[in-house]
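Final report, results section. Input specification for complex C-07:
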Amino acid sequence: MSDSKHNEMQEMLGAYALGALTAVESQEVSAYLVHDQQLQTDLAAMRIAVLALPLIVEEVEPPASLRASIMAAIEQEPRIAKIPAASTVPHLKLVPPPAEVNEPDETGSSYPKWLPWALAAAFLLFSLGMVGWNQLSDDNVTTPATIALQSTDPNLATGGEAEFLKDSGVLLVHFHDLPAVAQNEVYQVWLISGETVSSAGVFPAGTTDFAVAADPANYDLIAVSVEPGPVGVPVATNPPILTGDLSVA
Amino acid sequence: MSELEDSVLMTRITSGDGAALAHLYDRYGRIAYGLAYRVLNDPSGAEEAVQDAFLQVWRKADSFNVDKGAGFQAWLLTIVHNRSIDQIRRRANRQGKETVLLDDGPYIGEPDPSIEVLAGLQRDDVRKAMQTLPDDQRLAIEMAYFQGLTHREISDCTGIPLGTIKSRLRLGLRKLSEQLATGSAEHLVIN
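Structure output:
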């Protein structure tokens, strides 16, 4: 690290902090900064000054429509929700088929009564070979596995596909032909591992894509039910309208 | 929700809570729009920049690290500024002059105590600090920040040698940061 190079980079530091360098110049400074602690310290101080600059502007009332536009825009975004830690989810007991269960169990613990039904349905689908599996691999590229989501109602022409994007750790689900729901209802996605049922989030009717930061290898089943909005419920209150077997992913 | 801290609202946003984002908009929308309007001098462009910024907040909320000195307002306004400058450069069709702006991303890494300097700053503090700069340094900084000009473009506009512009930007920011740190310390003493 020569003094002349240090001085040259130092002279560019203000413009660098302000984003007033070209991409090539900026890359040169970035690469040099790794080796120069003094300039890193100088830059940190300058960045504070740059971050403070917006404070000198006058606040201006935005158009009234902007707020609504933003909220409408986020409604169109794929929902990405973090799965709560397993310890936060009530542990479930195995239960008899839903037709035989009409009362809470002795401990009062809550579980979706359709769970065993859903597991049985998923197993049936798998057994009949109705689960789609599409995976190609070569030396450099691995396409994500696709899991089909099937409607639980033969009269409902809805379905979906789930893909795990390994690089980003996101399970991306695409839905089609989901039926309309009441104004105060939402779709809720569930990820099931053994007896543990976790809410993966909610989305409104009209949404076609939903994403959740989850690895399907950790779950057996994905399910979608209609639940009270706007934030859903901690324990499903309705049977699923879609299920998919994640154990094949 | 009116008294909830930004960090709490950001956590709610990671759970898909649109109302939390709306609350942050209500809290920071005017300054965000004011910044975009200052840069663009165009209401529709400013709207677009602010909308893009809040969408970015929505998308990246789960990577926002409030525990490491990250300030939401500073992050939001950085995004607004970047989106605004992007518009200027698209309009100018600055082929081959792509520049690199302050990173949009949330501040992730070792805690930086100096970030706390920002937390206590008010508009008057920063304006007073800017007024302490020599006019040529202040003008160069404003041309770079609010007009999105590169140091070469500032040199071309003003006819001032490039080396002089670089010095003015560097010395101006250095003095500004010193003034802000001093002002922040005074607040602590007074309070």
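The helical segments of chain A are 3-18, 23-33, 37-52, 64-75, 115-127. The first strand of chain A starts at residue 79 and ends at 82. This concludes the modelling results for the funded period.
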